[in-house]
Specification:
Blueprint: E1 8-13, H1 19-28, E2 33-34, E3 41-44, E4 49-54, H2 56-64, E5 70-74, H3 75-81, E6 91-95, E7 101-107, E8 123-126, H4 129-139, E9 144-147, E10 163-168, H5 172-176, E11 180-188, E12 190-194, H6 204-222, E13 224-231, H7 235-241, E14 249-253, E15 256-266, H8 272-280, E16 284-290
Parallel strand pairs: 1-4, 1-5, 8-9, 8-10
Antiparallel strand pairs: 2-3, 3-4, 5-12, 6-12, 7-10, 7-11, 13-15, 13-16, 14-15
The protein binds phosphoribosyl ATP (PRT) and zinc ion.
Length: 295
């Protein structure tokens, strides 16, 4: 793979479930993606950054080996390939809030289930033998792992296995195959990973600024800007109600000594119930606004 010096490299999935969302995430950080003729490599127009578009299975290796500085990959894929720091593995910087799914144990409904112990002595088909093996060990369960590259959900019907361990998002695939979800092995979503190898010295500042922008995109995703008027006497009560907010900004209201304007960034969802509680505490003219950028 030919890569140029003087440019930061980010590995992303070329096509598949994470591909579009990864590009959208990068663009949300103000990096303008040029979709050129080169299928393998997209350039960022306004920064010396290249996007390497690859199979998701290769992302952790590219970042672990220092070929790429950053990567976006499913935590499930990363956990399966985990190499540890001594072997040059990659470091998870942050969860990105998309590509959510769960690695679950599922069985035919006829199998009696009393918890993970029910898997003892059974055959479990999966594409995640490493993660499953680790989980079984933690649970103290001795079972046989049958590794399959795909079509795991048909294994029990083909009598290849008694149970499966597979990714689930809506659950439709399990249902279509007459399987019941029984236990959670790993909760997954797309994560940003970083190489342990230091970047080229000239790119260190750029790498830090990209990481900060990405953190800003993640932080702004679930956050809301909340504004209201409130009696001074209710400030303590209101601060306690605001979900995941630091100290709110309090400013005087013209011509009113008893009331103030309160502004706060809430890191968690602001529900109708929250607004009703704020109102109950004396707040009025409550506004909840989306946040576009945050740093
Ligand atoms: O070509 P490449 O190797 O890059 O891609 P891939 O085929 O290995 O992966 P891809 O594109 O299918 O998925 C990429 C990543 O998306 C996964 O590694 C997960 O991190 C994430 N993801 C999120 C999912 C799902 N949701 C998901 N539902 N990956 C797979 N599935 C499968 C699931 O296994 C099931 O068989 O989709 C099927 C439908 O799920 P239900 O529950 O909605 O029916
Ligand atoms: Zn893959």
């Amino acid at each position: 793979m030919s890569t140029e010096p003087g440019r930061l490299r980010i590995a992303i999935q070329k096509s598949g479930r994470l591909a579009e969302r990864s590009l959208a995430f990068i663009e949300a950080a103000g990096l303008r993606v040029m979709k050129g003729a080169n299928e393998l490599l997209y350039r960022i127009e306004n920064q010396p950054i290249d996007l390497l578009r690859v199979r998701d299975d290769d992302i952790a290796t590219l970042v672990g080996d220092g070929v790429c500085d950053l990567g976006i990959v499913g935590l499930n894929v990363l956990s399966e390939q985990e190499r540890g720091e001594q072997e040059g593995g990659a470091q998870v910087l942050m969860r990105l809030g998309f590509g959510r799914c769960a690695l679950k144990i599922a069985t035919p409904p006829g199998l009696q289930w009393h918890g993970p112990q029910s898997l003892a002595g059974l055959r479990i088909a999966t594409s995640y033998p490493v993660v499953l093996g680790r989980w079984l060990k933690e649970q103290g369960v001795d079972a046989r792992i049958v590794t399959m590259r795909g079509a795991v959900e048909v294994a029990p019907r083909l009598k290849v296995s008694d149970a499966i361990c597979d990714l689930v998002s809506t659950g439709a695939t399990l249902e279509a195959n007459g399987l019941m979800a029984r236990d959670l092995v790993l909760e997954s979503e797309a994560v940003l990973i970083r190489s342990h190898a230091a970047p080229e010295p000239a790119l260190a500042d750029l790498l830090q600024s990209v990481e900060e922008r990405f953190a800003g995109v993640v932080a702004s995703q679930g956050s809301k800007y909340v504004m209201m008027n409130a009696p001074r006497s209710a400030l303590d009560a209101i601060s306690r109600i605001l979900p995941g907010a630091g100290a709110p900004t309090v400013t005087p209201l013209a011509g009113r000594d008893d009331a103030v304007a309160v502004h706060a960034v809430c890191q968690e969802s602001v529900f109708w119930e929250t607004l009703e509680r704020l109102k109950g505490a004396g707040a009025s003219s409550i506004l909840v606004l989306p946040i576009e950028k945050m740093m």
